[in-house]
From TrEMBL:
Component of nuclear RNase P and RNase MRP ribonucleoproteins. RNase P consists of a catalytic RNA moiety and 10 different protein chains; POP1, POP4, POP5, POP7, RPP14, RPP21, RPP25, RPP30, RPP38 and RPP40. Within the RNase P complex, POP1, POP7 and RPP25 form the 'finger' subcomplex, POP5, RPP14, RPP40 and homodimeric RPP30 form the 'palm' subcomplex, and RPP21, POP4 and RPP38 form the 'wrist' subcomplex. All subunits of the RNase P complex interact with the catalytic RNA. Several subunits of RNase P are also part of the RNase MRP complex. Keywords: Nucleus, Phosphoprotein, tRNA processing. Component of ribonuclease P, a ribonucleoprotein complex that generates mature tRNA molecules by cleaving their 5'-ends. The lineage of its organism: Eukaryota, Metazoa, Chordata, Craniata, Vertebrata. The gene is Pop4. This is Ribonuclease P protein subunit p29. InterPro entries: RNase_P/MRP_Rpp29-subunit, RNase_P/MRP_Rpp29_sf, Rof/RNase_P-like, Rpp29/RNP1. It holds the Pfam family RNase_P-MRP_p29. GO terms for cellular component: nucleolus; ribonuclease MRP complex; ribonuclease P complex.
């Protein structure tokens, strides 16, 4: 029939366009089969490797004095707005510090919260000279807190063997520094035990 000849001509021309590298004999051989699988040629895309940005080493940070606070900036009044921001941050984190809020829930949130801007007091210490130090936390490292006092003095207080108290909206929380030897970024992922032995 005339329609079948047109169909053969169309299929042959279609296959020729789709597979230009194939010879006419091979195409004719494919037409004798019941199924025709069309080949697809695609260009291989080369993946570009991402370059990892290298940060400063600890030695370079010390040389550049990145974490040092200049003496003219060591004033308590400068950091009071930071404390107000921290209080609002904690209220939002705890969905409002209401009188009926369960203390262990707030305690759990505070253990993982960022403490930069919090006002803390050293309540117990194996070194008596640290007891009574009160101020705003300016920097937190793995083993120390840097605190600015109302007398505009920058104190470096170790976490080890010290107990810190933190007050917000009538809620007082105690932080045992010996169990707190972590960087701020590491604390957010750590699971703290609610019960256990507590010592300095």
């Amino acid at each position: 029939p005339q329609d079948s000849e047109k169909a053969k001509t169309f299929v042959h021309a279609f296959l020729k366009r789709s597979m230009p590298k194939m010879a006419d004999e091979a195409i004719q051989d494919m037409l004798t089969r019941k199924a025709v699988v069309l080949e697809h040629y695609h260009k291989k895309q080369t993946k570009q490797k991402r370059k990892k940005t290298k940060g400063f080493t600890a030695k370079q940070r010390r040389e550049l004095r990145l974490f040092e606070i200049e003496p003219e900036q060591q004033r308590y009044a400068i950091f009071l707005p930071l404390h107000e921001l921290w209080k609002q941050y904690i209220r939002d984190l705890c969905h409002g510090l209401k009188p009926d809020t369960q203390p262990h829930m707030i305690q759990g949130k505070l253990l993982k919260a960022d403490l930069h801007g919090a006002i803390v007091t050293v309540t117990k210490s194996k070194c008596p000279s640290y007891v009574g130090i009160t101020g705003i936390i300016l920097q937190e490292f793995k083993h120390i807190f840097k605190i600015i006092t109302k007398e505009d003095k920058l104190k470096v207080v170790p976490k080890l063997n010290n107990v810190f108290s933190l007050e917000l909206d009538g809620f007082i929380s105690y932080i045992y520094g010996s169990k707190f030897l972590l960087r701020a970024s590491e604390r957010s992922a750590k699971k703290f035990k609610l019960k256990g032995t507590i010592d300095l």
